[in-house]
Amino acid sequence: MEIVREQDVVPFRNRVREFSTRIGMSLVNQTKLITAASELVRNMLKYASGGKVILEIISHNAKTGVRLTFKDEGPGIADIALAMRDGFSTGRSLGLGLPGAKRLVNEFDLKSNPGEGTTVTVIHWKHGR
Amino acid sequence: MNTTAQVLEKNKERILEKWMQNQLSDASLRDDLMTSDELQRQSKEMLDGLLRAVSKGNHDNIYDTEFEQVTDTLRDISITRARQGFSPRETGTYVLSLKQALIEVLVEQRQDDTSTLYMEIMQLNTLLDNLSIVTFETFIKGREEVILRQTDEISEISTPVIRVWDGILALPIIGTLDSARTQIVMENLLQEIVNTGSNIAILDISGVPAVDSLVAQHLIKTVSATRLMGAECIISGIRAEIAQTIVHLGIDLSNIKTKASLASALQLAFSMTNLEVRRNDKNKGLNIMR
């Protein structure tokens, strides 16, 4: 899914909801995943002015889950450890987006090189673990 | 040898007749939206303009002055149709069925000269394709205007400030809170606090589908602005799953009064203003004492 404008956020969240309902995720886990997705997609819009998200349903060792891959070609993150710290923000926001999203999902992976863009992959399992 | 324009001019009546037939025979035509008389009048005006333009020797460039009248009429028709609720198919059929009528007439008239016929049909094809593109552009523009107006209306009606009691305001927020809406919400709320002299505002977020850090930030801003005005803010309608996500995200709402439902928020507001709600034993009705 392409995300280029703020108006794309709501349809995107609905797609995530659709995917997580399809595998029978509970409401709490759905909300967690959607909120994390919302944080990441807003980051993408704000710092990289848009990008792509791949939504997938995956299974692994009899677990099913939703995997979201956020890919952008923005400026990248210079200091990942600093960006993952609570309360740090370069954009006058609460600074909870990245660390918060990490706490909300089961698996979180962030790759970024300055000047080359950022890729964030998150996985949330059906039962939240 | 007659030119294309002359042939068409001579057979204008037949073209119009065929065109009308094509339009009326289309099963999708909505005669409830437009009478056939009106359609006939519109079509005649359009055909007149088109033939006049073609007779000046212009076959392809619809942006020339000769075509101004035609494109104007066409835009007019498309935009009225978009507003009246015609489907894109109906609007498109209008121009495309003219093409059919024109070609049919030309085929009749040019039976002996296929190479000229071929050239003419090619020219007409390009011309009418261009005209149908104009139709679509305008049709979509008409629809977009409708959408834009609705967006305006939604943002206007979506943030009502309700006075639930003397000095207590409630503000149900429905949908996603973005920066633009927060601005409207805050403005409305602060203005209403001034107007009514209220000192408690209840922000109800039951209708907000997801609370992420941006929404939370906007809420915190609204609350601080309300506090600056000397009023207290209660956030209500925090659902169980939202409470969990807020905690995981690490958003600190502990210095803001929050309640699960609007009812309990109202109760808190009553106790903050030293109001008491109790049952009247005499007639079993609700009686609110000051």
From TrEMBL, chain B:
Organism name: Pontibacter lucknowensis
InterPro entries associated with the record: Bact_StressResp_Reg, RsbRD_N_dom, STAS_dom, STAS_dom_sf
One Pfam match: STAS
Protein name: RsbT co-antagonist protein RsbR
Domain STAS: 158-269
The entry's keywords: Phosphoprotein
